[in-house]
Amino acid sequence: MRITENCVALLLLFSANYCWADDPQAPPATWSFSLQNINLFDIPKFPGMVFDEGSSKIQKQVHSSMKSLLGDVTIDPDIIEDSILKTPDLIKKYGYPSEVHHAITDDGYILELHRIANHGAMPVLLTHGLLDSSATWVMMGPNKGLAYLLYEKGYDVWMTNVRGNTYSRNHTKYTTKHAAFWDFTFHEMGKYDLPATINYILDLTSEVQLHYIGHSQGTMTYFIMCSERPDMCDKVLLMQALAPVAYIKHAKSPVVEFMAFFQEPLAMLLKLIGAHEFLPSNEFITLFNQIVCDEDSFTEEICSNVMFLVAGFDKQQMNETMLPVVLGHAPAGAATKQMQHYGQLKHSGHFRQYDYGWIRNHWRYGSINPPDYKLDNVRTKVALHYSLNDWLATPKDVEKLRQGLPNVVGKFLVNDPKFNHLDFVWGIDSRELLYNKVLALMEMTERGDFDEM
Predict the structure, then answer these.
(1) Low-confidence ranges of the chain (pLDDT < 50)
(2) What whole-number distance in Å separates Cα of residue 231 and Cα of residue 195?
(3) Is 216 noted as a catalytic residue in this protein?
């Protein structure tokens, strides 16, 4: 990834304005942070630093540079290992049966699926959120990660990786160097990725239905799938939405606000510089996060606040010891067009397809505005789990979503006023506050408790 693209990507994530500051030596007025006298956006310029994702030298180079900046920091070797291991290896490390599978979408993307195999059991599919991957369900470890809890309850656990993330970067025709590879948003994930994944699982296991649990964007893609492919809804016994995202008019994340406010000039800039991928995961980012976000480092507090800036503040639920692991796996990559789509939803207040402008919209959709997604096609039983301190899935937007869905079995508020968007997958008390309810609803559905509702 070119340095110019790095600047734009980091700019978007942190909503900082350093990249276009009139005086590069002067600190930005808002939403900025630095390490001693070195601004984060200057890090790729360190002497000897190279962007070669396949090079083993980069870890030594970054480690040396970071040590010289921050001094000696001690990181638990187990934390380092967990931040580097891929999802299948994390599962194996903790003694669970691990499998890797691949599903091919109708438009040629090769998706990598991760499985904690419990052959013959009811399958459950977990779908991650924006800039995330299958690792989100296991990185907190046994007794904490939802994937492990589901396996212990007797489920056959499957985790998807949507197109463009760390694990799903292959295509039958394109490579990630082709602009065409990145010509997608969450619309294509719902229309193609989820159907391909669900059909693959059901065909392999000879099951008729499965459970579905999504977080954030993983809920949005499900609603899109049902809108565009309502027949797929019949293959899901119960859909549970953790921090459900569809309408984001009231989202108060500075990142979403930024994307909405600057959506048109930003789209032009990204197209001009050829920045098709947003914040890819690479070896440099992984090692940088391991060192900068170690809990013994003076910069650890900064890392926490950056995460909170994206999704809401809840220091009590943020396991600071695990930050190097979290940031070793996230961000896991996305398309810049995908990020622009979020900005459009915030700006319009609608849950609808990508806006190409009124001329191209008329050619693609037959109308000057993109069509809204058809929530009345979501025939599946749906359970909505939300919180008060969620900056992305706000209570007002979740309520609007509930009103549009025809078969909601319940809207469940997490009993912690500070619980935020990321706590649904990484929170210290997620098991007690959320996952026990998720498991109970699955059992109730299988017993038929909701059939007469």
Answers:
(1) 1-71, 284, 298, 453
(2) 10
(3) yes
Place of tokens 């490390």: 93
Domains of the chain with CATH codes:
1-24+32-446 (3.40.50.1820)
Task: State the amino acid at position 76 in one-letter form.
Answer: D
pLDDT value, residue 302: 52
Angle 198-202-208 from CA coordinates, rounded to 5°: 110
Looking at 114, 171, 385, 421, which residue is catalytic? 421
pLDDT at 273: 62
Q: Are 48 and 60 in contact (CB under 8 A)?
A: no
Amino acid, single-letter form, for residue 47:
P
Burial of 209 (0-12, 13-18, 19+ CB in 10 A): middle
Q: Is 421 a catalytic residue?
A: yes
pTM of the full predicted structure?
Answer: 0.82
Please tell me which residue in 134, 216, 297, 430 is annotated as part of the active site: 216
